[in-house]
Structure formats: structure tokens, C-alpha cells
Amino acid sequence: MDFVTLDFETANSSSASPCEIGLTFVRENRVVETKSWLIRPKGNYFNFYNTKIHGISAADVVDSLEFDELWGELKPLIEDELVLAHNASFDMSVLRSTLEMYDLAVPNILYGCTVQIARKLWPGRAKYDLKSLCDWNQIEFRHHRAGADSEATAKMILRGFEQRGIQEFDQLFEELGYKAKRLNQYKRKEAAPTKRRPSYASMFSLRDGGLRIKETLVFFQKNVVFTGILENMNRRSAELLVVQLGGYIQSEVDANTDFVIVGNPTPRFNSTENLSVKHIKALDLIEKGFGIVILTEREFKELVFE
Fold it and tell me: Which residues form the domain of 82?
């Protein structure tokens, strides 16, 4: 099977702030090359949280190209390819948002998420973050640098394909029931020429009395489930905020869940206990010894807002 693994590092909480990209090329189920590029984000603004994770600062990229200047080199490397990424929703969001910011056309690619594929390759694992999967498969790498992460992703998923005898793209669906997606063109929104679409951070600031997002690691590489109605923030925006802070969003509670954020009851809550099915499942797993943390909306806000 031929594919490319991709990893982005970002400079700040905006998805359109790539500061490094890594690409690893797999041909006939073998890693043949890894490349990485430092990128100067627009405005060259880095926040403490992101720099603490990957170690890249504004000084490191001051002489690097911006994404639009680098795109002519990058696009041919991923065009018409199957692109895999670990937590692909994040990396594809970075790619799509950055292309939109620079008014660049979306390339023709199919993409897949190696977190989701790994769950099918190795069901029942306690953790599916890249470091845990690579440790388990005895793959050493320098975490949170784009080139190293993309290569580790390729080696990790190839290990799983080898164990399951997967040699061709079609077997992803036939053997695992996993279907790759096509990266769609971003949808332009009608807006006044001087009106800019707000970032996730500014969306929260507007709705929450000027609160600022903390530089916190509490949700980094953690699985988070939301349940109920949030009073002071949009549920989808709250989920995107967790992703920006390095976490993963789950639709259901299971043994891999780390946090459950509980909002106000809905008509679907249990009428006797006034708890959602997800809340009840979390309590049951906690009783069985799983380390799930249940947070109210207020406690969630205290963790992420200054």
C-alpha cells in the first residue's frame, strides 16, 4: 500500500497557525522518506502552551517561509494521495483553515485517521495516543516534532497492517470496516468585506464576558465526552476548544474516556436519576476502577479560562 502520513504543529490556538509540517512517504508498505519544514505563521505569534509542547518559537521560524510560499512545494507531494494522520480531525482542520486563510484551493486527497484505524486494529487498548501506541509497539521517536511524529505514525500503522495482513487500500474497508474520506473544499460564508471570522478563542471571549483561554495541558491527549446542554457556551465550540488544547472528542463513554463534561439535563436524561446515559455509564466505569473524571460546566470553565 502507498500512502503519506502528515503531521502539523501549530503556533497558537488558531487552527490556521501551522509552524511545522512533517510528511512521511510509504511505498509498498515501506517507509521510504520523511521530510519536514518549519513554517512562519501569519503574524509569527506563538503562545506559551504550544511552544511548551513542541519547543518551536517565533525566533526559530523568523526566516522560514509562510505557508502560501511553501504550498507550491508541498501540494504535489500530497495531491492524489491517501493521507493518514493521527487525530486527523486536527491536522485536516489545520490544512483546510490555512488554505482558506490564504485563498488556496483544497488539494484532491483521501484522508484517514490512524486513531480510528488503531482502535479497529487493536481493540481494547487503554490509550490510543501516538506515544502510547508507539511505546507498545517499541517504536522510539522524538514526540511533538512534525517529521518525527509523521514517521512514527507511519511505522506504527504499518506494524498494525502487517499484523492483520493488510497490503492494499481496499482492505481498510474489507478487513476493518474503515472508509477514508475526501478532503472537501471549504465553504465560503457571505460576510461584509471588513468582517473577519472570529477564532475559537474570540468566540468564547465574546460569550463569556471577556474570559481568556488558559495555557493548560489538562486535556492534552485526553479523551473527552460532553453530555447535556451547556449554559454559557456552544457545545460544538467547546468540543473544538478541547481539540485545540490537544484533546480528543469521543461521542460515547467507554474504558478509554478520561473526562466527561456534564451540562444541564435534557428530555433524554433518565427521569429517575436525572442523569444522561453517558453520565450513568461513566459512574458505572468509575465504580469498576476506571479513572474517569466527571466535570460540571463550571469546573470545565475554571480549567480552561483565566
Answer: 3-182
Measured between alpha carbons, how far is 5 from 25 in angstroms, rounded to an integer?
7
Q: Distance between CA atoms of 243 and 304, rounded to whole angstroms?
A: 12
CATH number at residue 227: 3.40.50.10190
Tell whether 190 is covered by a domain: no
Task: Find residue 108's DSSP bridge partners.
Answer: none
pLDDT digits (tens, 9 = 90+) for 228-280: 888 888 888 888 888 888 888 988 898 889 899 988 876 555 544 568 888 88
Separation of alpha carbons 103 and 134, rounded Å = 36
How many whole angstroms separate alpha carbon 297 and alpha carbon 229? 9
Q: Which residues pair with 18 in a beta bridge?
A: 10
How much is the pTM? 0.66
Give the neighbor-by-neighbor strand order of the sheet with 259-262: 248-249, 223-227, 259-262, 293-296
